[in-house]
Design brief:
Blueprint: H1 3-7, H2 11-34, H3 41-76
Length: 77
Amino acid sequence: MEARELSKLPTPELEAKLDDAYRELFNLRFQRAQGQLTDMNSIRRVRHDIARIKTILRQRELAAQLTAQSVKSVDKA
C-alpha cells in the first residue's frame, strides 16, 4: 500500500492493518523456514508496509502532542 492511501485511513483501521501485517510477516517467515515460500520479496514488502504504517501512526501521535502543547501555552497566556 502507498503512504497516501494509508494516511487517509482512520487510526483504529491503521492499527488493525498493522496487526494484520505482523501476522502476515510471521506466516511468511514460517513458510520460508519450511521451504514453502516462493516469493522472497514478499517479506521485504510486508516489512516496508509495517514501517509505513508505524511512521503514519507516529506522525499523528506527534501532531496530537504538538496540538496539546499549543493549547496549554494559549491557556497560560
